[in-house]
Known about the structure:
The structure holds two protein chains of two kinds. Chain A has 18 helices and five strands. By secondary structure, chain A is of the alpha/beta class. Residues 389-397 of chain A have low confidence and may be disordered. Chain A has two domains: 4-45 and 185-396, no CATH class; 53-171, abc type-2 transporter like domain (abc type-2 transporter like fold, 3-Layer(aba) Sandwich), CATH 3.40.1710. Helices cover 66% and strands 8% of the residues of chain A. In chain A, α10 (222-230) packs across α11 (233-262) and α11 (233-262) crosses α12. Chain A is elongated and about 95 Å long. By secondary structure, chain B is an alpha/beta fold. Helix content of chain B is 64%, strand content 8%. Chain B has helices at residues 2-17, 19-35, 59-70, 83-91, 105-110, 126-154, 159-166, 183-208, 216-244, 253-277, 281-289, 292-298, 310-316, 320-332, 342-365, 374-377, and strands spanning 48-54, 74-80, 97-101, 117-122, 170-176. Chain B has a four-stranded mixed beta sheet, with helices on both faces. The radius of gyration of chain B is 29 Å and the shape is elongated. The model of chain B is unreliable at 368-379 (pLDDT under 50). At the A-B interface, α2, α3, α5, β4 and α7 of A face α2, β4, α6, α7 and β5 of B. β4 of chain A pairs parallel with β5 of chain B. Chain A: One of its GO terms (molecular function) is ABC-type transporter activity.
Amino acid sequence: MSASSDRGIWRVFRQxxxxxxxxxxxxxxxxxxxxxxxxxxxxxxxQEVPTGLPVAVVDxxxxxxxxxxVRMIDETPDLAVVAKLPDLSEARKALVSNEVYGIVMxxxxxxxxxxxxxxxxxxxxxxxxxxxxxxxxxRAAGAALGSFAAGVSIELRESQGQTAEEAEAGxxxxxxxxxxxxNPALDYTQFLLASSMPSVLQIFICASAVLAISRxxxxxxxxxxxxxxxxxAWRALIGKLAxxxxxxxxxLWGADAIVFGYFGAPFRGDPxxxxxxxxxxxxxxxxxxxxLGLVSESPLIGLGYAGILTAPAFGFVGxxxxxxxxxxxxxxxxxxxxxxxxLQLRIDQAVRGADAAMxxxxxxxxxxxxxxYGGLALxxxxxxxxxxxxxxxxxxx
Amino acid sequence: MTVLFRAMWTAFRRLLAxxxxxxxxxxxxxxxxxxxxxxxxxEVVRDVPVAVVDxxxxxxxxxxxxxxxxxxxxxxxxALPTLPDAQALFFAREVSGGVVIPPDFxxxxxxxxxxxxxVYGDAGYFLIYSAIxxxxxxxxxxxxxxxxxxxxxxxxxxPGVAMAMVSPVAISSIALFNPQGGYAxxxxxxxxxxxxxxxxxxxxxxxxxxxxxxxxxxxIAAPLVYILLYGLWIAVTQILLPFAYGIExxxxxxxxxxxxxxxxxxVTALGFVMAxxxxxxxxxxxxLVVMGVPLFFISGISWPVESMPKPLWAIAALIPSTTAxxxxxxxxxxxxxxxxxxxxxxxxxxxxxxxxxAALLLRAxxxxxxxxxxxxxxx
Lengths: 397, 379
């Protein structure tokens, strides 16, 4: 350590890059592996909207009309009639075997009852244990039956002397114009893929920072040497974590490039603000990981903490199940993770194109998490670099 | 036999002596049992806040708003004069959606003309959007049907015929299993299958990755101990936990274990294969900790298997959870019986046999990577 020019951020940064490059296993975990997982997620949701979901029909009527109903259900793009079964118990067997996600049950004498104005009942059974798929099946089958009923209703009205126009209006007196904002096709890539990729990356970032920091704590005096290399604690930390920050920033942007580029969702936000938010997110996650690495006595324990905090994070962010329906504990847990404000900011500043002012609370929240975890990490590095406290720090963990 | 029991006791003590293994295979499951279900304990979304823009101000429009507000899923929290006002509240995240009732809504409705309304919501949040959309559609449908029925009967149509004209067939939608459409009931039982798999694999990684091979008797005893321990965790997470969170169970415990034991065999064997391939304990834990979310989606519980690329799913099926998650849910939550999951049971046994063979071959090849730390070696 001769010249001061040989210290500082740059020195620690170069050392870290050399470490990554020289350890093949570490490199594989940092670069090809996250790419593989992002690819797996993208491939999983590649179809964007589920189509041709298998359903069974139990047609106990066997009339012209019931066959028409079956045809209309089969023609719905969301559904495919894969089985025509004689009774409900057979259909139920197919449902619990996951061969079908729903059952359409047409009762005997349906056509006759319908013509006699007796309002026969058609039942759609859907598997609500598979909530999303069951919901799609119920909605799609309901819509197909609804248009069948509308057709019948129009014929009935016309037979009662109404004009075609009157009949048309009478069938649907209050049409509801649906505006699914920012995701008009109800596309799952915009919903699950776009939010699950940052969730996976949050785990990667925290776990990488844990491993990086733990390496300096392996031997006595390691932390003092580390701080000396950096010139001071914060320079050392930045130099150490910057290589990971760069890798994961590119991955995070790559993930959004898949959503906005490959799947063609319109990017409505302010690019500068978006880049700032992603930089803050990665920094906050690195700080959290560093903090966890510094409080745990071994890299394995640190990885364990990171896993318990971040692995279930996707459930707490409020995309799949909204935060407004969560209890206080879940809200607080989610609030402690950088992912929660980041995904809110990402939606504001990439998807919705909201006014920057609207995003200030979430931005402040993310900055506060970064400051909190970064500040704690800095304090711990300083303390553990003091020669007389190294052993005490190691013991107390 | 006593030799085996002694070896098992040693393996169990070794697990308890290693802090990281204890944290992974004991503490984390208790923690996850408390933490993981928390977001979903309310099960369903109620009273999603929406704003209304009532440009008509008639008794019919007020009736419609009252009906929307009366639904379980939506609450009308703001009445605003213009659409931009509603948009401002939406972007500030104070409301999740809006309903616009145009001028002349009532007149058009009573004249028998189509009288449309508009509903807005962020479709990036599926549950919220579907709550709003369903509530508004059903309120509008009910009001429209009533107005129609009154018009027809007032014109002298027989009430029964009028009813049939408005709605010629009754369409019922019945949820089989999880009847209230609860989110915890849907996600918690499935997620814990994955949590058990991941923590078991990690625990094996912590205790065995990068370690010199044990004596033969230890190589049999250790997996047995983990399977017994996780057999206990199966009862905790698949029987006790659903009970604690009010999640319905239709399957019997015998059926549960008929599936769980092959699953645990497959996971344990996979764990030993991974442990012998992993360059270090840290690398194995790192690999596993980031895998959860993709593995959950690929299991088909939330996104249909039919919509995934076949080759991807076929490769993923080499991981036990891919086929096991829905099988557990079918047996436990849907009461499917064992016949409906026999294919999965056989597949788990095939995986168990395949991975056991692979682990034995790798072991025979022998690859001492790192000496055991002394504290683990001591008995």
